[in-house]
Amino acid sequence: MELPLTAAVASHLEVLTDAGSTNEILSERARESLTTPPHLSVLLTDNQTAGRGRLGRSWTAAPGASLAVSVLLRRLPSGDARGWIPLAAGVAMADAIAEQLPDHEVAVKWPNDVLVDGRKICGILTQATHDAVVVGTGVNTAMTESQLPVPTATSFAVLGVAADADRLLATYLRGLDELVADLAAAGDAVSSGLHAAASRRCATIGLDVRVSLPGGSVLVGTATALDADGRLLVRAGGAERPISAGDVVHVRPA
């Protein structure tokens, strides 16, 4: 896989023929050293065999049908601002995908899925290790309709577009690095502009949602906004409740 644009942005780029989990591989390498691999190192494959999604879900795809990309971030914001990194990745990937799908609606489903016309094209999973964060993304590129894992998924191929993987990854990396750097410099997402950018891209805001919360309870209401900490505000029973974790279903599709 030739990726000259991506190689020009990444501090180190490694493309694997196949991998169990790019996140696990890169996280293990980061655990072995506080300096290597360096910030903005990238590990990717188009044949991930043991990927994981949120809440421990498995994530697999046919060889060549999708890209599994993990990015190591070492220049991090401090404190609670780190909780914005998944949303920063979502915004950066949504921007990169939208660049190649200008005739479609590209948005972020809180907290970390990217949707095209309301259907999932990319999932994001972050893992912290020492003083670093690994951001993993799985993007459906050449996946056919019959290969889609669920009816609510989509891909570049299903949309009739041949994804330019090199351009996609280079744009994503630049955007992610800039958003996280601005967040670190400003100290909070409101001052850095990330709060506004994420709010603009967030498909969940304004929709009726069903949230499966940790512990087994379920909250049904209307998503109204993102708060300053990146939590989803859900209005239910006449009051707004901040949600920091949970599985969100759009009751009314985006």
Automatic annotation (TrEMBL):
GO MF annotation terms: biotin--[biotin carboxyl-carrier protein] ligase activity
Q: Does the keyword Transcription regulation apply?
A: no
Give the E.C. number(s). Answer: 6.3.4.15
Q: Which CDD domains does this one have?
A: BPL
- Provide the top EC class: ligase
Q: Which SUPFAM superfamilies match?
A: Class II aaRS and biotin synthetases (SSF55681)
**Alphabetic keyword roster:** Biotin, Ligase
What Pfam family is a match for this entry? BPL_LplA_LipB
Quote the cellular component terms of the Gene Ontology held in the record: cytoplasm
Q: Which residues form the BPL/LPL catalytic domain?
A: 1-184
NCBIfam families, sorted: birA_ligase (TIGR00121)
Q: Mind telling me what this protein is named? A: biotin--[biotin carboxyl-carrier protein] ligase
Q: Which organism is it from?
A: Microbacterium foliorum
